[in-house]
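From the methods appendix. Each design record in this collection lists the tokenized structure first, followed by the designed amino acid sequence. Records were kept in a plain field format so they could be parsed without special tools. The example shown here is representative of the layout used throughout.

RECORD:
FOLD TOKENS (310 positions):
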């Protein structure tokens, strides 16, 4: 019997936590020993869902090789987003819905990636295909992941599969989808008790684009007034992180989850690439992103294309 640590990307969001918990349970049904862990402290949004459905908070790890030889990745594949000693363990599973970049293994593995709104949606399909029932509490956390990643089905990453799966998981979890979804998004958008660093770096990922190290964070809010009142502090944190991590560019996408619009803040030596990528104008390190809600589909691809221009 193989012992697995199952984890998502650093700065874990709801899909990362939910998918790690769900896939660890799935592996146990397949006869393995598995533990869901996190690569960072669990923030307010996933914590709301964990408490709602009575699930334990995954413990935080910094390295994996000191505990196991085999791991399973969910909701990511890019090495810079993963555990620091990823090259010292064997990756047997990847379940993901992002681009594939910089990923390779020395041996065959189970790799499942689909262009779908949420990793938890893929896992729901796997539970059905393998004939494993989903417990009520795990259904609840998986539903929370889908609501988070699709912004209650408003994000352009949403597929019809996500909508159908969301309804089925809501039935198993015994919650009203719309009512719970609204309460969940409101809880995740409350920034009153978050520090500037938590807002900037709470859900930030590094990407390699044209050999440049780019960091893109995203925070969900309701109304821009409160967060813009803290703009100076946010930019100071971003500048410090850029220097510390030797970043070419640090972008923070601030998304109003009710209005489905975003604004961006940025630090970097040359911000003109953002004007090119998003057909926008930058004023005082701030720019408009009308209709943008998805980092994966509406931010990463155009920025990658702009940085790859000769």
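DESIGN:
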């Amino acid at each position: 019997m193989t012992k697995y640590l199952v984890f998502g990307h650093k700065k874990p969001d709801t899909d990362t936590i939910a998918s790690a918990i769900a896939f660890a349970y799935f592996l146990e049904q397949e006869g393995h020993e598995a533990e869901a862990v996190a690569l960072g402290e669990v923030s307010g949004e996933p914590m709301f869902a964990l408490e709602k459905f009575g699930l334990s908070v995954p413990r935080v790890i910094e390295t994996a090789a000191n505990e196991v030889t085999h791991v399973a990745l969910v909701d990511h594949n890019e090495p810079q987003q993963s555990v620091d000693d990823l090259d010292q363990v064997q990756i047997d599973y990847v379940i993901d819905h992002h681009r594939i970049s910089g990923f390779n293994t020395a041996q065959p593995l189970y790799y499942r990636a689909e262009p779908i709104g949420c990793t938890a949606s893929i896992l729901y399909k796997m539970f059905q295909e393998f004939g494993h029932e989903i417990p009520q509490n795990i259904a609840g956390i998986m539903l929370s992941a889908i609501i988070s990643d699709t912004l209650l089905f408003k994000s352009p990453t949403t597929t019809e599969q996500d909508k159908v799966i969301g309804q089925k998981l809501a039935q198993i979890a015994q919650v009203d989808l719309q009512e719970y979804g609204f309460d969940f998004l409101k809880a995740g958008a409350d920034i009153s008790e978050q520090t500037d660093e938590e807002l900037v770096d709470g859900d930030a990922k590094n990407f390699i684009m044209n050999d440049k190290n780019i960091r893109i964070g995203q925070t969900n809010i309701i109304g821009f007034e409160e967060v813009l009142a803290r703009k100076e502090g946010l930019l100071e944190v971003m500048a410090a992180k850029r220097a510390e991590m030797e970043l070419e560019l640090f972008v923070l996408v601030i998304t109003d989850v009710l209005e489905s619009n975003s604004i961006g803040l940025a630090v970097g030596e040359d911000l003109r690439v953002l004007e090119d990528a998003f057909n926008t104008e930058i004023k005082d390190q701030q720019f408009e992103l009308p209709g943008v809600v998805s980092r994966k589909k509406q931010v990463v691809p155009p920025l990658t294309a702009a940085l790859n221009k000769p």
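APPENDIX NOTE: The beta strands are 3-7, 33-36, 70-74, 90-96, 110-113, 204-209, 212-221, 249-256, 261-268, 286-289.
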